[in-house]
Amino acid sequence: MKKIFLIVYDFDGTLVDTLADIADSVNLALSEMELNTLSRETIRNNVGGGVVNLMTHSLMGSGCNDIDTAVSLFRSHYNNHLLDQTDFYSNGRETVEYFSDKTNAILSNKPVAFIEKILEALNFRQPFDSVLGGDSLDVQKPNPKGLHLLMSKFDYSAEQVLMVGDGAIDVETGKHAGVLTCGVTYGLGDPNALRDSKPDYLIDDLAQLKKLFT
User: Fold this and answer.
1) Which of 109, 99, 85 shows the shortest CA–CA distance to 167?
2) How many domains does the chain have?
3) Mean pLDDT of 67-83
4) Is the pLDDT of residue 49 over 90?
5) Can you point out the beta strands (E) in the chain?
């Protein structure tokens, strides 16, 4: 088993299943703009790059390029609906608690206020020593700046850090920072792209981390 000291988790698709609420909010925004709604699977493929990226892709082929309005409407609807169906994946909460002796952090491209609101509502903010969202810094994943900031803040070297996520973007971020990477196949990311990104570890259930790391 590999000894680690800092575990950095992605959020959507890794710890919590947020797809239903994200998809509903995207479609509420599109409907308000009098545009055709999208399938949940289409929206799933657009998650992971932040809100602007999500709505930019959601407008593709619609003949509308008013991204600012789309982003604003999505934010408004999502703020009101982000807890309708969202919950932890199986073993998500338990696994984070198992590693309570480690430094635990979240690094996501999701706006940090949404992450904090979900964690507080699910009564699970306390286990995380730091939460960084897509608007916490001037860059987002796959830029490794967030990981470097966490490593500096808690004084850990790259070989002591693990990045866990469901998307190739998470693996890419970890590799840019020189840390260990672990992909999870159950989330929102494309599992084939995840495998192609060649994470150091690949698991089907977050609980498998317990057998890999100490």
Assistant:
1) 109
2) 2
3) 97
4) no
5) 6-9, 16-17, 87-88, 103-107, 130-132, 161-165, 180-184, 201-203
| Cβ contacts of 1 within 8 Å, gap of 6 or more | 211, 212, 213, 214
Q: What is the DSSP string of 40-89?
A: HHHHHTTTTS-HHHHHHHHHTTTT---HHHHHHHHHHHHHHHTTSS-EEP
Does 198 fall in a domain? yes
Residue with tokens 């259930």: 205
Q: Which residue has the tokens 């998809």?
A: 23
- Phi/psi at 36 (5° precision): -65, 140
- What's the rounded Cα separation, in Å, for the pair 61 and 157? 45
Taking only the tens place, the pLDDT of each residue in 92-125 is: 999 999 999 999 999 999 999 999 999 999 999 9
| Locus of tokens 């206020």 | 113
How far apart are the C-alpha atoms of 182 and 170, rounded to whole Å?
9
H or E segment at 209? Answer: helix 209-212
Q: What is the pLDDT of residues 21-43, one digit of tens each?
A: 999 999 999 999 999 999 999 99
Residues 94 and 175 in one domain: yes
Burial of 200 (0-12, 13-18, 19+ CB in 10 A): middle
Residues 77 and 153 in one domain: no
Percent over 70 (pLDDT), the chain: 100
